[in-house]
Design goal:
Layout: E1 2-9, E2 18-21, E3 32-37, H1 43-55, E4 68-70, E5 76-78, E6 92-100, E7 106-114, E8 128-133, E9 139-142, H2 144-155, H3 159-165, E10 167-168, H4 170-178, H5 181-192, H6 195-224, H7 230-290, H8 292-304, H9 308-431, H10 436-440, H11 442-510, H12 513-605, H13 629-703, H14 718-812, H15 817-822, H16 824-895, H17 903-970, H18 974-982, H19 985-1022, H20 1029-1091, H21 1097-1122, E11 1126-1130, E12 1138-1142, E13 1148-1151, H22 1157-1175, E14 1183-1187, H23 1195-1206, E15 1214-1218, H24 1222-1227, E16 1230-1236, E17 1242-1248
Parallel strand pairs: 3-15, 3-16, 10-14, 14-15
Antiparallel strand pairs: 1-2, 1-6, 4-5, 6-7, 7-8, 8-9, 11-12, 12-13, 16-17
InterPro entries: P-loop_NTPase, Rad50/SbcC_AAA
Organism: Candidatus Filomicrobium marinum
Pfam families: AAA_23, SbcC_Walker_B
Length: 1263
């Protein structure tokens, strides 16, 4: 990194703008230059500007103290605020640095600060920073944070590293050489920035303690977990397997019983449904019998329905006749009216023709007169237009003259009022002259009042927070004490519960639970064998009963099968006989029907449309209205054939029914045979199973001293014998239940105590954690109290300062500080009102002065305008008189034409009359033509109406005759037919649907009864034996209860095993955590042994020693180049002690305090350069600034120091020395001089003592 140029303005003493360009001569060629000047001139400010531009801060304010200083704006800022460098009285300032980055590119960093509104006493604004590339002018970064990060990336140096690399403060190393060991450790830590190692040492020590506590807590948690004994767990697992198997076998038995119970319930439901079907069939028959009257009524309606068309035809022809007669009457009236209208239209046409002829003659007569009148009207209009223009000019001139006079009067009034206002304003300004100060400084006063209000608010908040923090501190103390007592109580209770748990486990060990459990398991196995034997005996008994039932069913179905076969043969013979008879009748029926059809065709061919039928006389010509001999014969044959068809269908149905019965009987025979075979096989299977089970039963009876009441085979007494044996075994088992229950109870109590112990441990840990949390909170609260007290003191001082500033302004406004405390806003508003009022008065005076000048100018302009208006008015009056005379002459000439009437009016009146006469003539012609047409049409309509009457009379007579013939054939009178036909079609169809529904329900009830009976027969066929529903239900209930007991015991065992599994998993998890915690603790202990300590000294001293070794090594390299006589070495008696080896004295080891001033300067300079190399070893810096006073050195030592600095040129470095020592200034030719110019101002100049004209390198600029 290389510094290329430094610029700035308005920074502390440097008020003028300055630029130090290290690329320009003489600095470009100088390896060593001095920054000189009197004390306070601003030498160090140049280095401050360098740091500000790059990092936004500088060493003199890089402190941790929270001191406050007063800014010219009246606000307090912290002492570490970099903006404090802005010069007093300046509104803005900046610092700028050009540098060469580690990437070889040139950059420009800039820091700038401004005050509000560009005023010297305005509030400080946020500092602005930016970093630009000088290569292409692009912006790299803006803003505080972004620029700092970008600068660090370009330079590869933080601010602390930059201070130790570029700005070398030798005073620190001189103090370092002469300090005691502890002080030297602090200085070394400050110089090298190795304080992080102390914090690491402390964190390692605290981290080791935390992990030791965590490991101890895990060990306690694992010890508190109680696990089940292995033998107890084995017995529970065995019992679980046995009871699970027993539950499965009983579930199978329960399934069989449930199926039997369901079958019995289905059979019962089927019988009930069959009974309901029989009841439904009887009800359907009764409802159909009750509907006899409705059936007869429907038959009468159906008989009357064919006559509806003839009745409607009669009514329609009658209505048509009446309508034809009414239409003829209307036509006669229309003919008479049309004749009258035609005569009236002829008269109107004649009158309209005469009027049109007269109107056309009048228009032709007046046409020449209208042209003459139009010419006269045009002359009058021109004269009137000219007169209007002249009158307008006169009016305009008069208005202008009047306006000028009025404006003149108004301005006089305004001037008078304005003078009064101006005098009043001046008087009030003089009276309130003391408020001028408020008006001029209103913004500052308001700002300070706001600052005071904010400070008072912050003071109130701080007091409130201090009060709250004090209360919180008082609240936490009893909480911590109570929590500590709670932890002690938990420990006592844990001891008590542990003792109780040990007693329970001792009592549990006194019970021989293992032997009892084994005996109970054997009894359960034996009872399971007895249950299986009892089930096998039941299955054998059921199978034997099924064999008997199957034989009975098979014999019955074989008998039914033979009966069905006989009935099928009889029905088939009868069916063949009926078919032969129908074949004979069918031939005769077809011949008779053919003969009848030929005769009917002959009759229909003789019918003529519109003529009466020769048979019935009707005009509708239906196919057949009267009987005939051939028809009667055909009807008899048709009835006989229908009877034969019904007989054939009935025999076919019987055949189908008996065939179905035959198939069912055959199927039932097969079912019975299969059931017999299956039942026989089940008997043999049950016998084999019982024989296989007999040895185990014998072994169980011998083991339990029970009798052997049965042999290896199954007989009728086997079931009762097995039931007695089961009762004896259950009695033995009940004797074991009490001790086993006691053991289970003890184990449950032990588990509950263990759970309580675990909960107490968790609660104790939780309370202990809360204690630590409360202690931390208490320490934080006390620290906060200290901070708040400091803050309150600072706020009080700031409030006193603002009070001193505000008191003069408040006195001017008639207020005091108490008024601000009572109502700050009202007081502030009062000051603002006074200041605003005074400012308005000043503005009003200026406005009145300007208005007065404006009125004077307006008055002069108005006078000129009035003179011009009077001249224009005279000329306009003369022109108006001349145009009035011409207009009167033209009107006199026009009055003799058309009787004085307007031409357009006169012409429009006659022209309109001609048009109206022509329109009336056209209308009359059209009306006359229309009347003639209507007369002809009315006559034609009358002729048609008369013909329609004749036709309607004939149609009505024909319809009456046809309907009368139909009534006689139907054997019903006219009124009855009309009454039946009047019933709506919907009502008839509703009656028909109701009757059909009754018939359908009868059919459905018949079918349902058949199906229900078949279902009963089917269910009875599935199980021949009758089942006792009550006994079967009780058996199912008992078996369900036994299964439920077994399942409850299984669930209890599973819960115990699950709890033990969870405890084992928890113990295993804690074990893994404990193992990992121990491994981690071992690592932390090793690290703690190496570098850990409560105060952080162990690792800090070690790091300081390593850093000191590196620093000494690098310093010796620098010292050997400056003066090879001396070398630094670490002492063996102490960690941080140093000695100097004097090579000229035979490598004598000398104390640092034995060195002279010049020798100590060389050593401290070597250390400073070494630190620069240590911090910048990754990034070479070729520009160094050494800020060190050389006034304490004698001439010889000073020469030695200068020679040492000049040797740094050979290493490619440019060194700037800040000094005010005259001897040193004389030795260094190239200098940056900071010269005082009075008023605390300094000017920067670059000079070269080797040139006669030093001003050639002077640099002046404004900041």
């Amino acid at each position: 990194m290389r510094i290329l140029a430094i610029r700035g303005a308005n920074l502390a003493s440097l008020a003028d703008e300055f630029e130090i360009d290290l690329r320009a001569e003489p600095l470009a060629s100088a390896g060593l230059f001095a920054i000189t000047g009197d004390t306070g001139a601003g030498k160090s400010t140049i280095l401050d500007a360098l740091c500000l531009a790059l990092y936004g801060q500088f060493p003199r304010v890089a402190i941790d103290k929270l001191e406050s200083v007063r800014d010219p704006s009246g606000r307090d800022i912290t002492a570490k605020d970099a903006r404090a460098i802005l010069r007093r009285g300046a509104a803005q300032g900046y610092a700028e640095v050009d540098f060469l980055g580690q990437d070889g590119k040139q950059y420009r960093a800039r820091w700038e600060v401004r005050r509000a509104r560009g005023k010297a006493d305005g509030n400080l604004q946020n500092a602005e920073r930016r970093l630009d590339s000088l290569e292409d002018g692009s912006s790299i970064a803006t803003g505080q944070k972004d620029v700092s990060q970008a600068v660090e990336a370009c330079t590869e140096l933080t601010f602390a590293q930059f201070r130790r690399t570029v700005l070398l403060a030798q005073g620190e190393f001189d103090a370092f050489l002469l300090a005691a060991e502890n002080e030297r450790a602090e200085l070394l830590e400050k110089i090298t920035g190795t304080e992080i190692y102390g914090r690491i040492s402390e964190q390692v020590n605290s981290g080791t303690k935390e992990r030791a506590n965590e490991t101890k807590a895990l060990e306690q948690r694992r010890a508190d977990i109680g696990l089940m004994e292995e033998d107890v767990r084995t017995k529970l697992e065995s019992e679980l397997a046995e009871r699970s198997a027993l539950s499965e076998s009983q579930s199978v038995q329960l399934k069989d019983l449930t199926e039997r119970l369901k079958h019995a319930e289905r059979l019962k439901d089927a019988r009930a449904q069959a009974y309901n079907a029989e009841t439904g069939l009887a009800a359907a028959k009764q409802r159909l019998d009750e509907a006899r009257d409705d059936i007869a009524r429907l038959e009468r309606l159906d008989a009357a329905e064919p006559l509806r068309a003839k009745a409607e035809a009669e009514r329609l022809s009658e209505r048509k006749l009446a309508e034809a007669r009414r239409h003829a009457e209307l036509c006669e009236v229309a003919v008479r009216q049309s004749e009258q209208n035609a005569a009236s239209a002829a008269r109107t046409l004649k009158e309209a023709s005469e009027a049109s002829t007269k109107a056309d003659a009048d228009v032709e007569k007046f046409t020449p007169l209208w042209r003459e009148a139009e010419q006269a009207d045009s002359q009058i209009a021109n004269a009137a237009s000219e007169l209007e223009a002249a009158q307008a000019a006169v009016a305009q001139a008069q208005r202008q003259a009047d306006a000028c006079a009025s404006d003149h009067e108004k301005i006089e009034v305004q001037r008078s009022g304005l003078n009064e206002q101006l005098a009043q304003t001046l008087n009030e300004l003089e009276t309130r002259s003391t408020h001028a100060l408020l008006a001029d400084r209103l913004e500052d006063i308001t700002s300070r009042i706001d600052d005071r209000a904010e400070l008072r608010r912050r003071e109130a908040v701080a007091k409130k927070e201090l009060f709250s923090a004090t209360e919180e501190d008082a609240r936490l103390q009893p909480l911590i004490a109570a929590a500590e007592e709670e932890v002690a109580a938990y420990a006592s209770r844990r001891s008590q519960i542990s003792a109780q748990l040990n007693e329970l486990r001792e009592a549990l060990s006194q019970i021989d639970e293992t032997s009892l459990s084994e005996h109970d398991a054997r009894l359960r196995d034996g009872l399971e064998l007895l249950r299986q034997a009892r089930e096998i005996a039941r299955q054998h008994s059921d199978a034997a009963a099924t064999v008997s039932e199957a034989d009975v069913l098979r014999l019955a179905q074989e008998k039914a099968l033979a009966e069905a076969s006989d009935m099928i043969r009889q029905a088939q013979a009868q069916h063949a006989d009926w078919l032969a008879r129908r074949s004979e009748v069918s031939g005769l029926f077809e011949l008779a029907e053919k003969t009848q059809s030929q005769h009917a065709v002959a009759l229909r061919s003789a019918l003529i449309t519109g003529q009466p039928c020769p048979v019935c006389g009707g005009l509708d010509h239906p196919y057949s209205e009267l009987g005939h001999p051939e028809g009667e014969m055909v009807a008899q044959m048709r009835a006989r054939r229908a009877e034969l068809d019904q007989a054939i269908a009935a025999t076919a149905k019987d055949i189908t029914t008996w065939q179905g019965a035959e198939e069912r009987a055959r199927a039932q025979c097969e079912v019975a045979a299969r059931r017999g075979e299956d039942a026989t096989a089940r008997c043999l299977d049950a016998q084999n199973k019982f024989e296989a089970l007999a040895p185990q039963l014998s072994q169980f009876c011998v083991a339990e001293n029970l009798p052997l009441p049965i042999g290896p085979g199954i007989d009728a007494k086997a079931a009762s014998a097995l039931d007695g044996l089961k009762a004896d075994a259950e009695a033995i088992q009940r004797g074991l239940r009490e001790p086993l229950a006691q053991a289970v109870s003890l184990r449950g109590e032990a588990d509950a105590l263990q759970k309580t112990l675990d909960e107490i441990s968790e609660d104790s840990e939780r309370v202990a954690a809360q204690i630590q949390k409360d202690r931390d909170a208490k320490a934080s609260v006390r620290a906060k109290c200290g901070q708040l007290e400091t803050q309150l003191a600072s706020l009080a001082e700031q409030l006193a300062s603002i009070a001193r500033e505000l008191t003069p302004y408040l006195s001017t406004a008639g207020l005091a500080l108490d008024d601000l405390d009572r109502d700050s806003l009202a007081a502030q508003q009062h000051v603002a009102d006074l200041a605003t009022s005074y400012a308005k008065l000043r503005d009003a005076r200026a406005s009145l002065d300007a208005e007065q000048q404006k009125l004077e100018m307006s008055q002069r302009e108005i006078h000129l305008g009035w003179e011009k208006a009077k001249a224009s008015l005279g000329s306009s009056l003369l022109a108006q008189s001349q145009r009035e005379q011409r207009l009167q002459e033209a009107k006199t000439a026009r009055a003799s034409m058309l009787g004085g009437e307007a031409t357009d009016t006169h012409r429009a009146r006659f022209t309109q009359a001609a048009k109206e006469a022509q329109v009336a003539l056209s209308a009359a012609q059209a009306a006359h033509s229309e009347a003639d047409k209507k007369l002809e049409l009315s006559k034609a309509l009358l002729d048609g109406a008369l013909r329609a009457i004749d036709a309607s009379v004939q149609d009505f007579a024909t319809a009456q005759e046809v309907f009368a013939n139909a009534i006689s054939v139907a054997a019903m009178n006219r009124d009855e037919i009309y009454a039946l036909l009047a019933i709506p079609q919907e009502e008839r169809e509703l009656l028909r649907s109701q009757i059909n529904a009754l018939q359908t329900k009868l059919t459905e009830a018949t079918i349902a009864l058949t199906h229900r009976r078949q279902e009963v027969e089917r269910l009875q066929g599935e199980r021949e034996e009758e089942t006792d529903l009550v006994a079967l239900t009780e058996a199912v209930t008992t078996l369900n209860a036994e299964i439920e007991d077994i399942r409850n015991r299984v669930a209890a065992i599973q819960a115990e095993l699950k709890q033990d599994n969870q405890a084992r998993a928890s113990a295993a998890d804690i074990g893994r955590q404990l193992e990992a915690a121990r491994e981690e603790l071992e690592i932390w202990r090793r690290v703690d042994d190496a570098i850990g300590s409560a105060d952080g000294n162990k690792f800090r001293r070690f790091a300081q020693g390593v850093t000191l070794d590196q620093l000494v090594q690098l310093a010796n390299v620098q010292i050997s180049e400056l003066n090879p006589r001396y070398q630094l070495a670490r002492a063996t008696t102490s960690d941080l002690a140093l000695h100097v080896i004097d090579r000229d004295m035979g490598d004598e080891v000398r104390s640092l305090r034995s060195l002279s001033g010049g020798e100590r300067f060389l050593v401290s300079l070597g250390l400073a350069l070494a630190l620069s190399g240590l911090e910048g070893r990754q990034s070479f810096v070729d520009t160094l600034f050494i800020d060190e006073g050389f006034g304490a050195l004698d001439a010889e030592t000073l020469d030695m120091a200068i020679d040492a600095l000049e040797t740094l040129q050979g290493h490619g470095r440019k060194v700037g020395v800040i000094t005010h020592v005259a001897a040193m200034v004389d030795r260094i030719a190239v200098q940056i001089r900071v010269e005082k110019r009075g008023g605390g101002r300094g000017v920067v100049r670059v000079v070269d003592a080797g040139f006669n004209d030093a001003s050639a390198f002077a640099v002046f600029a404004e900041a």
